[in-house]
Recover the amino acids of this structure.
């Protein structure tokens, strides 16, 4: 049944296609790789020239998270593996996993063994492994093979004595070896972290990954969202889909919308996430993307969890929050349940409709703690009871004010109190 | 041999008529009928065709061997014993069928044979493991006899030649022992270890003998004295005057003869026929390239008990014989060195040939006809190629081999039974991991890494050979940090000082308390200078002007822990691996107590410790121990320490600094003239850089760090950028309009990339909110004047 429906419905197919595209980094970064200024072609040039000219290089790929460093690198590596099928072996390390020199070397040895169908022993010592590495570098160099070391989270390798980096880079410059070390990091000053003798051996190729410019983004949106002409989808549908999409993309309101989104975070990875959400909101019955889809996606990314939390609070809890805020305004920085209670009592000196007993208030207070709208200021005093431990607000006064305003039936007195 | 011909054709369908004359002399038909049973079919596909071919070709000419095969096949269950018996049997069989002097080698050949058996069994077994078969024993036993025979059968029919061998080294010739030589004069030719020779392939090969020394002209068929030119395609020789039109002088570059040109154009070409009555004589080179001869490299020479001379040869292969055949980029005169060795009797040597590395080959243009190029080593088991190590390593290897041989020859005369063991060792050395990969891991080192010979390209990639380097690429290659410059400019003074220090220490008999501390910022050539000095000294040792010494190099950063240095030193000195505590004890015995075990221990020892500061432990005992040894009267130890910090001795305990801080050498950072000189000395002869560009780069680097590595990297990067630009231009415009020279702009770009933090660029392109946040933070900073602030404060 479901399958039949899929067959009938081109919009379902189109949706699937778009989703696959958005989650496939290869497709996303392909169009950015054409121009000679792109990181893709630069990186490819550096690596391929070090393969053909038998030289050693070390490259740093820098850029904020989600800017496509690893994706571009993978793209380059897969291309090169096709171009020189025999001449490359890639060793991948991650700073989070192999930050320790000893275990990094072991991992290198393991991957080298896998690559060349050698037997690997787990018990080999640091010395053995490092000598094995050097021997392998030499042999591979003699056999015109390039070893590419990909060090993800490079900044984590650049800690402590940096023995791994030193031995890698030193082997690269003394032996007849062919190796490329590629460091991927989101710390821009990662080369300053290197020790001076390691830095001196590092050949400072740097590639900076920046968010795309406005024109690029537009080109890019069109490339991703428009359906291909030569797919299994019915032709008329494709044409109409693309036509409507063009209208949406050309719309001023859409541009504004995208700009608001990009002003938060302008990296490609984030943009992809946004588009994925927008595409998922597509109405299957209509079968076309509309401006509304993007709007809902944007508003869903801009949720304010705390003010939404306030909506679910009881009136008493709101009273407590307002009291705490008033205490903070009075510059009473450290307060606990008891001081809040005195404030609460003082409010009710002139207003008595919402006056509750102390134990009820304590219950509400505990609920607020659970919702994490307030928390204890420190971890000390676990043995103390809740009333005596100092607490703090986790919600800003502005948020609280907006929350109160949008509350269904907020007592007017509360708004007055918070405004004062 | 009849069986061999068709196979040959399968392999290289080039000139079937060559084998016609072989067919004349035939052995029994039995061999033909038996041939399908030969192990070739049993050996898994990775078994090299050449080896087996070679073996079979020799093997089938004799009938008695077949019997032995039958015999062994009947007894497959006891392989070990079979080995012994094969040895005997084939010995007997050889005796039985041997026509000539082979009779006079009654006992000795047994040993090499059993060894060969062993080796061969390894291959067979391994192959079978890979195939998942079980009948290893059968295969093995059937393989062996051929192997045994190969080498023996190499001999030609020229027994008329009486071995006139005499050893140049007239050492004590003990009877009943093998004697190893470095050089043998045999048959009026001098043969050294490491020489390359032609080896006869089969007995009838001498039928068209009287090998011409000079090649004949392909047109007039006379050798003559006048200048000949060689076609780069068919390797035929032509007199300059015989050509049409005649050439006045040898042209530069490649030259292809008219016949080849015409053939390439698809025409049918009739080669000039030789005059009547004169047979066209092929030179040895032609025969070799047509695989009618073999070439081998002499690895060792020895004299058997009976006085016959043998050598262990390492085969060369022509490209047609490899698994992937001739590749388009192979040169006509290219050979591959294999890892296949064999024991060959000296009589089968025809004469010398010259197999050269590409560098020598490029230089040696007119050294006669027997010049070949050899750049790669071919692994016959894995069918893979590997470049032969560069000269530096080659030397080291040679030295290693030499010392090994010394050791062999010194050990050899001890006892006859020792030979077996020694052979075992040798075979493990040669054929190490073939067996061992089965059960030993590659990265756990017990003296060797196992299975490394698996690595190698199946084919030599084309881009390596067929690519003409542009100027920029050549520039980049010379600027590589890995390339060792021919000369080290600007460090003469320091090098002299080191040289004087080391020489003084070595020549001084006592060498008391010698310790040198070298310091300087990274990239100022500290290690390189010391190593250069050591290289110079080694050449002096070779020349005999100073006494031999041993040199140990340790890098502090490459040790797992500082204590491991004892182990590394001890291993470098003696070759044994022990735990560091034991090593410390032994080293203490040797250096401070003056206990000498072997004669080698008497040599002075130079210890170079790179990155010395890494050896500093909490109680600094490692440094103390190492620096204390030189002060002992009989230690003969010289320590050279290298580190970056100038005041390392002062930071240490006084008892250490008093031992280390006396003699110091400072490597200051290079200034811009020196950097410029370094770069331009590397770029000599390559016109790729503007002069100002080099100066700009060196001034920049000198102002910042004075690090030569950095300067070289900047220049290389600049060349890279220029190269990139030009290549892109070519691909887009289709015409190279850009001049291929590195200008200021590129150097500037490289410097920017290297020295400038990318923050500005990132800030330019980051999102609006992050910009706002940054400005808020800066504002907060100005307001409070504090270096640190919290998120909440910035928020307000």
């Amino acid at each position: 049944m479901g399958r039949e429906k899929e067959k009938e419905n081109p919009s379902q197919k189109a949706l699937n296609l778009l989703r696959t595209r958005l989650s496939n980094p290869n497709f996303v970064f392909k169009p950015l790789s054409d121009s000679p200024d792109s990181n893709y072609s630069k990186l490819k040039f550096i690596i391929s020239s070090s393969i053909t000219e038998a030289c050693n290089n070390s490259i740093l790929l820098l850029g904020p998270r989600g800017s496509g460093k690893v994706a571009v690198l993978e793209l380059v590596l897969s291309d090169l593996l096709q171009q020189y099928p025999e001449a490359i072996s890639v060793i991948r390390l991650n700073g989070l996993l192999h930050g320790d020199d000893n275990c990094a070397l072991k991992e290198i040895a393991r991957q080298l063994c896998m690559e060349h169908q050698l037997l690997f022993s787990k018990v080999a010592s640091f010395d053995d492994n490092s000598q094995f590495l050097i021997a392998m570098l030499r042999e591979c160099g003699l056999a015109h093979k390039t070893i590419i070391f990909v060090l993800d989270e490079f900044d984590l390798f650049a800690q402590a004595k940096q023995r791994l980096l030193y031995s890698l880079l030193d082997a690269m410059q003394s032996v007849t070896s062919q190796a490329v070390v590629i460091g991927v990091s989101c710390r821009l000053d990662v080369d300053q972290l290197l020790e001076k003798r390691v830095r001196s051996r590092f050949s400072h190729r740097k590639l900076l990954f920046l968010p795309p410019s406005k024109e690029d983004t537009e080109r890019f949106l069109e490339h991703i969202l428009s359906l291909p002409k030569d797919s299994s989808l019915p032709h008329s549908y494709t044409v109409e889909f693309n036509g409507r999409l063009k209208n949406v993309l050309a719309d001023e309101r859409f541009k504004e919308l995208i700009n608001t989104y990009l002003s938060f975070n302008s990296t490609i990875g984030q943009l992809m996430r946004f588009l994925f959400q927008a595409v998922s909101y597509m109405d299957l019955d209509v079968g076309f993307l509309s401006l509304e889809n993007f709007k809902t996606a944007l508003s869903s990314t801009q949720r304010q969890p705390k003010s939404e939390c306030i909506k679910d609070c009881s009136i008493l809890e709101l009273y407590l929050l307002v009291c705490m805020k008033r205490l903070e305004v009075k510059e009473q920085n450290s307060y606990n349940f008891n001081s809040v209670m005195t404030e609460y009592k003082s409010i009710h000196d002139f207003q008595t409709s919402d006056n509750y007993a102390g134990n009820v208030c304590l219950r509400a207070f505990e609920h607020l703690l659970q919702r994490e709208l307030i928390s204890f200021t420190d971890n000390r005093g676990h043995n103390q009871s809740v009333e005596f431990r100092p607490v703090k607000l986790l919600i800003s006064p502005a948020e609280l004010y907006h929350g109160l305003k949008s509350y269904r039936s907020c007592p007017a007195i509360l708004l007055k109190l918070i405004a004062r | 041999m009849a069986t061999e011909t068709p196979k040959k054709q399968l392999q290289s369908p080039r000139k079937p008529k060559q084998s016609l004359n072989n067919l004349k002399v035939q052995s029994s038909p039995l061999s033909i009928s038996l041939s399908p049973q030969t192990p070739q079919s049993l050996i898994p596909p990775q078994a090299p065709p050449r080896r087996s071919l070679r073996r079979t070709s020799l093997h089938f000419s004799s009938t008695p061997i077949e019997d032995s095969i039958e015999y062994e096949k009947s007894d497959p269950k006891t392989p070990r014993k079979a080995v012994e018996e094969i040895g005997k049997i084939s010995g007997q069989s050889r005796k039985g069928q041997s026509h000539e002097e082979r009779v006079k080698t009654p006992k000795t050949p047994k040993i090499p044979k059993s060894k060969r058996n062993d080796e061969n069994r390894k291959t067979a077994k391994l192959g079978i493991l890979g195939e998942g078969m079980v009948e290893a024993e059968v295969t093995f036993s059937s393989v062996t006899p051929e192997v045994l025979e190969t080498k023996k059968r190499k001999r030609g029919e020229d027994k008329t030649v009486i071995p006139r061998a005499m050893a140049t080294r007239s050492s004590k010739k003990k009877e009943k022992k093998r004697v190893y030589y470095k050089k043998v004069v045999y048959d009026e030719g001098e043969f050294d270890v490491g020489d390359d020779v032609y080896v006869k392939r089969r007995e009838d090969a001498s039928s068209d003998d009287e090998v011409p020394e000079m090649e004949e002209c392909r047109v007039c068929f006379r050798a003559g004295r006048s200048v000949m030119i060689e076609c780069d395609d068919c390797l035929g020789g032509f007199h300059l005057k015989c050509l049409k039109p005649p050439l006045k002088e040898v042209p530069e570059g490649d030259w292809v003869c008219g016949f080849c040109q015409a053939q390439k154009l698809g025409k049918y070409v009739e080669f000039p026929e030789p005059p009547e009555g004169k047979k066209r004589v092929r030179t040895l080179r032609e025969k070799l390239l047509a695989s009618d001869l073999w070439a081998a490299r002499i690895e060792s020479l020895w004299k058997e008990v009976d006085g016959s001379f043998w050598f262990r040869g390492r085969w060369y292969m022509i490209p047609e014989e490899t698994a992937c055949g001739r590749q388009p980029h192979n040169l006509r005169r290219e050979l591959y060195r294999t890892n296949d060795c064999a024991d060959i009797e000296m009589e089968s040597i025809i004469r010398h040939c010259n197999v050269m590395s590409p560098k020598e080959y490029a230089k040696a243009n007119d050294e006669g006809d027997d010049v070949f190029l050899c750049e790669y080593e071919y692994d016959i088991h894995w069918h893979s190629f590997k470049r032969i190590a560069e000269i530096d390593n080659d030397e080291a290897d040679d030295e290693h081999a030499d010392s090994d041989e010394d050791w062999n020859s010194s050990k050899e005369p001890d006892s006859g039974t020792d030979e077996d063991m020694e052979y075992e060792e040798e075979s493990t050395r040669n054929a190490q991991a073939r067996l061992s990969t089965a059960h030993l891991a590659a990265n756990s080192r017990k003296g060797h890494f196992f299975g490394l010979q698996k690595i190698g390209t199946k084919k030599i990639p084309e881009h390596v050979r067929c690519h003409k380097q542009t100027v920029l690429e050549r520039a980049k290659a010379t600027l590589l940090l890995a390339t060792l410059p021919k000369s080290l400019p600007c460090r003469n003074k320091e090098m002299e000082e080191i040289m004087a220090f080391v020489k003084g220490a070595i020549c001084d008999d006592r060498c008391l308390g010698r310790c040198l501390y070298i310091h300087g910022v990274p990239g100022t050539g500290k290690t390189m200078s010391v190593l250069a000095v050591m290289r110079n000294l080694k050449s002096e040792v070779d020349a005999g002007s100073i006494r031999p010494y041993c040199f140990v190099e340790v890098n502090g950063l490459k040790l797992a822990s500082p204590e491991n240095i004892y182990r590394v030193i001890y291993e470098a000195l003696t070759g044994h691996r022990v735990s560091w505590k034991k090593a410390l004890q032994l080293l203490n015995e040797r250096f401070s107590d003056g206990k000498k075990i072997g004669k080698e221990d008497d040599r002075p020892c130079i210890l170079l410790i790179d990155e010395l500061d890494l050896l500093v432990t909490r109680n600094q005992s490692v440094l103390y121990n190492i620096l204390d040894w030189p002060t002992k009267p009989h230690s003969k130890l010289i320590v050279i320490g290298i580190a970056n910090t100038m005041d390392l001795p002062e930071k240490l305990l006084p008892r250490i600094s008093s031992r280390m801080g006396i003699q110091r050498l400072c490597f200051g950072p290079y200034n811009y003239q020196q950097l410029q000189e370094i770069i331009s000395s590397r770029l000599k002869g390559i016109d790729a850089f503007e002069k100002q560009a080099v100066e700009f780069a060196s001034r920049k680097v000198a102002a910042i760090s004075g690090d030569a590595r950095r300067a070289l990297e900047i220049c290389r990067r600049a060349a890279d950028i220029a190269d990139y630009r030009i290549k892109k231009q070519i691909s887009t415009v289709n015409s190279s309009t850009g001049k291929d020279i590195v200008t200021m702009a590129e150097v500037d770009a490289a410097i920017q990339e290297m020295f400038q933090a990318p923050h500005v660029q990132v800030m330019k392109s980051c999102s609006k909110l992050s910009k706002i946040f940054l400005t808020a933070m800066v504002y907060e900073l100005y307001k409070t004047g504090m270096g640190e602030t919290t998120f909440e404060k910035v928020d307000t």
Notes: Confidence is low (pLDDT under 50) at residues 1-175, 204-209, 390-440 of chain B.
